[in-house]
Batch of 2 targets.
Target 1
Amino acid sequence: MEGLGYSYKLDVQIEVQSDCYFSLKLSLMETSSPIQMTANYHPYPEIDLHYQDWPLDLLMDYIVNKHHAYVRKTLPHLLDLSAKQVSAFGLSHRELHQVNQLLNKISIELTMHLEREEVVLFPLIHQLLAIEAIGGPLVSHPRSCLRNPVATMEGDHGLIVHFFEEIARLTNHYEIPADADDSYAVFYTYLQELESDLEQHVHLENDILFPKAISLEEKYL
Ligand SMILES: [Fe+2]
Ligand SMILES: [Fe+2]
């Protein structure tokens, strides 16, 4: 993306060793929990539920059902609202054009990112938990299966957070202009809610889920 110092990628591939965890003949179908989407979620209020103490399978289900479902439900509405603000106020508020571009990039990046987690990384962690349940060890792949996909996910998080920092700067931290109408105000409010939700979502993954999964894997390498 111009001016932001990041290369922008469109593929959903992440590097995982082909033999990861399969030596124990545990298939994704046998070890992964089915993903259920919850439609009616609102990001507030967020309270400390002692996530640090949760089992990792529960934490992953929570992340998918709460945060991933929220993103999928909210993004189409936000993109629609964003386009409407550009049409209505784009001449008097030039920053709306850049906000709209950034939001579209966030949408593409975040949609791929959720897919990567649900199709690759979370099933790997579910398999690791299944291996732990039967006492390990990982017999045929002494190298880490998680480090590459985790590093990719953390990179995605950094890029998406950076896009939101740009939006916050452009909008003067979501300050609603004096000439804004209700639709404009709702757009900034929802945009800020998405940023807040993402902050908590990234915290659960970067600070709790990923380090715990890596250290669990290290027990069996
Ligand atoms: Fe996630
Ligand atoms: Fe993530």
Target 2
Amino acid sequence: MKRPDLNEDVTRIGGQSGLAALPNRTTRITGWGHEVPATILTNADLETIVETSDEWIASRTGIRERRIAGAGETTASMGAIAGARALAVAGVGIDEIDLIVVATLTPDHSMPNTAALIKDALGGTRAAAFDLSAACSGFTYGYAVAHGFLTAGLGQRALVIGAETLSRVVDWSDRSTCVLFGDGAGAIVLEALDLPQDQVLATRPGTLSFELSSDPSGAYALWIPGGIGADADPLIKMDGAKTYVYATRTMAAVASAAIARAGLTPAGVDLVIPHQANIRIIEHVSKSMEYPMEQIFVNLDRYGNTSAASIPIALSEAVAAGRLKPGDVFCTVAFGGGYTSGAFVTRWDADPAHGARAATVDPARITVRRPEGGSNSAAVPEALRAHLDARGAKRQTSQPQ
Ligand SMILES: CC(C)(COP(=O)(O)OP(=O)(O)OC[C@H]1O[C@@H](n2cnc3c(N)ncnc32)[C@H](O)[C@@H]1OP(=O)(O)O)[C@@H](O)C(=O)NCCC(=O)NCCS
């Protein structure tokens, strides 16, 4: 059966830019890792915070629970632990990294950038470090920027991190958004890879292609007023229906464009790792690209939408679950605020067994620098803290003495 020509759709999205990897230099992933907070907030917990039900959330989104950062946990602290695990898996030290890119919409501060705090927490002395703002597409943009940096010869290795503390920018009285989001971080080490002159496209390892796009017509359909504007409201606002339409129109088209740039057809992709926003959006990708759901990695039931962290967490879990082996081609695809969307296609060539090295990282030894006499200002929001405290107290009193 002929697959629908989704490449035609990408021209309608607007503002896209893409690239097939250069002939003789590309990049490869050599390290991966993730970190999520220990505190789990289930749909049943949410029933006591807003007027909702497990049935509504699960049937509309596929989400069953999400993680919530504790008092000392921030985007920088989770990103640093994920980054340390990725470095351990790659078998490189922080000072062998030339560039740190942190994709996030929830930086610890407006300044310094989160990447600098992470570099410091990891004991780094030499990498260039900056944050990148492209909402839920941030990791695909960060990967593309790091790939460009490395293939242009500006360095040999980059640490690309997606990290978010969305629980601090969620309105816990708005049931249409608070059920969707969660906290966490994921990271990869990306290394430059020189290929032999005669390497054919069909077997070349590493990064194969990208597709990035932005459609500002959705600028205020998914946004956080914040910033320096007159309305500095720091909480997420969303037109869910409009965003749903953008997502279903974009995801398959952007993934298909990246796959075509890689010289492949969808049949040449072994695993799709989509942004984990909503199972119905992912099922739409499955249907329009004719991938069975078994070929698409899903973990949103356990984490909800972690924005820029969602793809690197999913990638790290996919490798640990044995879903990627050397030679497999995977495609990631994301959409998010802006609106933005992005995809990249990579032929995996690392040894999945290296993932075990992440266990050598002791998170207790990773400390994020804080201002003198100050602390992290992102306290657990009151509505949530009250619920978690009451839940903790209930559990303690119900424990046998
Ligand atoms: C948000 C979303 C799940 C809503 O699903 P939906 O199928 O469009 O919802 P419906 O239109 O069927 O239902 C909306 C109704 O449910 C209600 N509702 C919203 N959130 C609810 C909740 N958590 N629990 C119960 N009811 C809820 C609304 O108030 C509305 O009620 P009304 O019809 O009486 O006004 C869906 O639009 C979506 O996933 N959008 C994309 C969001 C996204 O991915 N954002 C992140 C982008 S990176």
